[in-house]
Design a protein that fits this description.
Layout (H helix, E strand, L loop, with lengths): L4 E6 L3 H10 L5 E7 L3 H11 L3 E3 L2 H6 L5 E4 L6 H10 L3 E5 L6 H14 L3 E4 L6 H11 L6 E9 L20 H17 L4 E8 L5 E10 L2 E8 L8 E5 L2 E5 L8 E6 L2 E6 L8 H12 L10 H18 L8
Parallel strand pairs: 1-2, 1-4, 2-3, 4-5, 5-6, 7-10
Antiparallel strand pairs: 7-11, 8-9, 9-10, 11-12, 12-13, 13-14
Bound molecules: NADP nicotinamide-adenine-dinucleotide phosphate.
Length: about 325
């Protein structure tokens, strides 16, 4: 039997619940500890997931010897400091997307992983989605020829959220780009790499939060048309088109349960259901890396996280997306 991996949950909010319920489905994963800024919240989470070790401070969990790896699920702007503090205490880290707010933050996180000799990965879960994984293999084997066009979006109506929520509160790095725009950008990056040029335009809420961003990634022989927004819902279908065929990822593409391959007007549909909420696949990747003493994943590497945030920095510079805590 492979060794048990002890997980600690940092920030038991919305996504931590979905992630932790998936942890329950993974062999050798022990949900060992939870930390909240509020003891009652930690206790309630612990009771729902039968967690033995309960902490009313993130640092108390980092300095304890109850876990091997922490899952950081706080708003984006806390990721860097928490990831670094966890790693300084010898903990491996899986940190929710976006890993950092900007390239400088991501560089610091990567450096801490190297200095402390611990595993670190951004929780870009769509990279491990079975459909996207399979489509990557198909595209790499030239099943649809050369990719010349990608179209993907991520949008939901978020303007009814509280202005204190992380979606609309600038102090919590609000806006669509870092939260959900990261997914279409990831898709273009996965299949076409770094673009030569980026065109982008944003609209803003009266409080300064970016609420819509359209992007065109320009490559020598391809274009990607991407969008993220909080002003409307979207069906969220993605297309990867090539000289010999097309792949369509049906709604919602970032957590797909299958895909269609269209060649010479013939449509073939493939079903590839996610396990659980879809986090099982990234959890298995973390386990695989930890068991083989790797400090990073080959499927979503430190370089990948760095290049992804570089793309978001370029878009932010072009469209004027700024946060008050950045100088
Ligand atoms: N992979 C995905 O599909 C997915 C989906 C949604 C979100 N996410 C990512 O997951 C992260 C968390 O998102 P979420 O929607 O789960 O967030 P959330 O529910 O708003 O917050 C998560 C937790 O962060 C902690 N927190 C620490 N400092 C905070 C502060 N100053 N204000 C508010 N909360 C604070 C809180 O826990 P305590 O106070 O109890 O410590 C809170 O419960 C984000 O980075 C987001 O991008 C990923």
């Amino acid at each position: 039997m492979e060794r048990e991996i002890r997980w600690g949950i940092i920030g038991p909010g919305n996504i931590a619940r979905k992630f932790t319920s998936d942890l329950q489905m993974v062999d050798n994963a022990k949900i060992a500890a939870v930390a909240s800024r509020n003891l009652e919240r930690a206790k309630s989470f612990a009771s729902d997931y039968h967690i033995e070790n309960i902490f009313d401070s993130y640092d108390h969990l980092f300095t304890s010897d109850t876990v091997d790896v922490v899952y950081i699920a706080t708003p984006h702007n806390f990721h860097k400091d928490l990831a670094i503090r966890a790693m300084k205490n010898g903990k491996h880290v899986l940190c929710e997307k976006p890993l950092g707010i900007n390239k400088k933050e991501v560089e610091e996180i990567i450096q801490a992983s190297r200095e402390n000799n611990v595993f670190m990965m951004e929780g870009l879960w769509s990279r491990f989605n079975p459909s996207i994984h399979k489509i990557k293999e198909l595209v790499d084997s030239k099943e649809i020829g050369e990719v010349t066009y990608i179209n993907a979006d991520f949008a939901f109506y978020g303007l009814d959220r509280s202005e204190d929520s992380r979606v609309l509160n600038l102090d919590l790095a609000s806006g669509s780009l870092l939260d959900i725009g990261i997914y279409p950008i990831f898709l273009a990056y996965l299949f076409l790499g770094m673009p030569d040029e980026i065109h982008a335009s944003s609209n803003f809420h009266s409080n300064g939060t970016e609420i819509q961003t359209s992007m065109i990634f320009q490559y020598p022989n391809a274009q990607a048309i991407l969008y993220s927004g909080l002003t409307s819902d979207s069906k969220m279908e993605a297309k990867i088109s090539g000289t010999k065929g097309e792949v369509v990822i049906p709604t919602r593409w970032h957590e797909a349960d299958g895909y269609s391959l269209i060649k010479q007007k013939e449509i073939q549909k493939f079903e590839l259901p996610r396990k659980g909420n879809g986090f099982v696949h990234e959890i298995l990747e973390v386990h695989k890396c930890l068991v083989s003493n790797k400090l990073k994943s080959n499927l979503w590497s430190h370089k990948n996280s760095l290049e992804l945030v570089e793309l978001m920095d370029i878009i932010r510079n072009k469209t004027g997306i700024k946060f008050p805590f950045e100088v």
